[in-house]
Write a structure and sequence with these properties.
Length: about 130
């Protein structure tokens, strides 16, 4: 299986089933299963991802009665997907708030520049007014 990530391409295979390739291979263990992951990305990042998935699967298995690793993997994937979507929503809200504040700042700056322009025009007509 090949997966595209911001850090590059990853190819997942169970131990003993991988083909030969020039792409570096990282051996990781997830939920007592060893996998060789070929990736042109950062090795430490791949290891961190595997540790994250392993810890999520162990959290799920400790809280359920199921011993089926596929069911545990599906539940872990659902939990990770839920977290991802919640974080995306928070990110979108923050972006929206930032855009609104940015617009407000731009409007205030426009008003300030208009006032400054008006004062400079009056200065030219009546005397010494300065902005610093």
């Amino acid at each position: 299986m090949t997966i595209g990530t911001p850090q590059g391409q990853m190819n997942l295979s169970k131990t003993g089933m991988e083909g030969t390739t020039a792409t570096p291979t990282v051996r990781v263990e997830i939920y007592n299963q060893t996998y060789n992951i070929r990736s042109d990305g950062d090795t430490e990042y791949i290891i961190q991802l595997a540790e994250f998935v392993d810890s999520r699967m162990r959290e799920i298995s400790s809280g359920t009665l199921t011993v089926d690793s596929l069911k545990v993997a599906i539940l872990a994937a659902l939990h990770i997907a839920d977290e991802l979507h919640r974080l995306k929503h928070l990110h979108e809200q923050a972006d929206s708030q930032l855009a609104a504040r940015s617009g407000e700042c731009a409007e205030m700056l426009d008003r300030l520049l208009k006032v400054r322009s008006s004062l400079e025009q009056e200065k030219g007509n009546s005397g010494n007014i300065s902005f610093s």
